[in-house]
Write a structure and sequence with these properties.
This protein is α/β, with parallel strands linked by helices. It has one domain (about 10-340): Vaccinia Virus protein VP39 (Rossmann fold), CATH 3.40.50.150. The protein has 13 helices and eleven strands. Strand 1 (about 35-40), helix 2 and strand 2 (about 55-60) form a beta-alpha-beta unit. The chain is globular.
């Protein structure tokens, strides 16, 4: 999977321990956990792991690149798509490069990838758009391309900037691989978290919302443009999409995160809540606990966690001088478990069948 700020790779064992403990407890009560909703799925690492353990998972994220990842890793059933994916990825991987908008924007005007690799991204992405693939197969192709580009990029893992000198991996040729699909059913959507929450009644809802000023759209705008393929106007040295300024999340604003979080919690219809939060957020862990306590009995597990690599590398100005004073080297990550039994169920207006995740090549997403 792609390098990702906020990835739960290191915390995955603890998350799975919590889920399995809840599953055992629920099964003993005669109410086994079968369905899971991941409302802020990001790279779908947690959703993918839960699907691998046999849960029926729905993964949602409001960014198009994350919805593509979820469609690939959660919605696509390997039994149906593996053979077709292998043929498609082999065809795309054999294509020669043809420089276009991506190369000019991210490899000439910026330095995220070397131009020869950018030209391959352009050619492969244009071919994907021309094929009018089924949503699952298109998502598999897009994720394969995204991950291939990530393996040869020249960043520290976020796209707020690129390295002054080419990273060693950037010299490697771009090569596609078939993503690790899983057997079984799942689903994905690209919706506001409140909308996605209202559409489903599940046994367990996992919430890992943004919690500070760092925008995932701003940090991964290259992937957003690659997936949407709308070739947007860009700005600044980082060549960000102009809609980064317009599509801000309330979870990234100190004055807006509390009401936004309350609205999402009010919309969720689940027997259990599992909420991941950090002490680096706009809300304190005590404030989060108090909000969750309105929905059921709360238990919490805290863990020390090494901060993102950017903290260790440091921040530099355009002249290459290190600036600023780093904060603590470690933070506290907290997993809150909320038992919603006994709380009056939250109802939602009657709705039709939830929409399938839309095709990702359109520019209207």
């Amino acid at each position: 999977m792609i390098k990702y700020l906020g990835s739960k790779r290191a915390l995955m064992p603890r998350i799975l321990e919590r889920v399995e403990a809840l599953a055992t407890r629920s099964a003993a009560r005669g109410a086994p956990i079968r369905t899971v909703l991941d409302l802020f799925s990001g790279t779908a690492r947690v959703a993918h792991a839960l699907k691998a353990r046999g849960y029926r998972v729905h993964a949602n994220d409001h960014n198009a690149y994350a919805a593509a990842i979820a469609t690939c890793y959660v919605q696509a059933d390997r039994r149906r798509w593996q053979a077709r994916a292998e043929r498609l990825i082999a065809e795309l991987d054999a294509m020669p490069g043809r420089p276009g908008w991506f190369t000019e924007t991210f490899c000439v005007r910026a330095r995220y990838l070397m131009p020869r690799n950018g030209a391959r991204v352009d050619a492969i992405r244009e071919r994907i758009a021309a094929l009018a693939l089924a949503p699952e197969l298109e998502a598999v192709a897009l994720v394969s391309l995204m991950e291939a580009a990530d393996r040869v990029d020249s960043t520290t893992g976020v796209q707020m900037a690129y390295l002054k000198q080419w990273a060693p991996r950037a010299h490697q040729p771009l090569r596609l691989r078939v993503p690790e699909l899983l057997d079984g059913e799942g689903s994905a959507s690209c919706l506001d978290a409140r909308v996605a929450a209202r559409r489903r009644v599940v046994d367990l809802a996992y919430l890992d919302p943004p919690y500070n000023q760092h925008s995932y759209l701003g940090n991964y705008h290259v992937w957003e443009s690659l997936v949407r393929w709308d070739k947007p106007e860009v700005y600044g040295v980082a060549m960000k999409r102009t809609d980064v300024r317009e599509r801000g999340s309330a979870f990234n604003r100190r004055g807006a995160i509390a009401p936004a979080f309350r609205e999402v919690l009010a919309a969720v219809r689940a027997r259990w809540l599992l909420v991941s939060f950090s002490d680096e957020g706009h809300l304190t862990l005590g404030e989060v606990r108090a909000m969750l306590a309105e929905h059921g009995a709360v238990r919490a597990v805290e863990m020390a966690h090494r901060r993102y690599i950017g903290h260790r590398i440091g921040i530099y100005n355009p002249r290459g001088e290190k600036v600023g004073t780093p904060g603590p080297a470690r933070n506290r990550e907290c997993l809150f478990v909320v038992d919603c039994a006994g709380v009056a169920p939250r109802t939602a207006p009657a709705r039709g069948r939830a929409r399938r995740a839309p095709a990702l090549s359109t520019a209207t997403r």
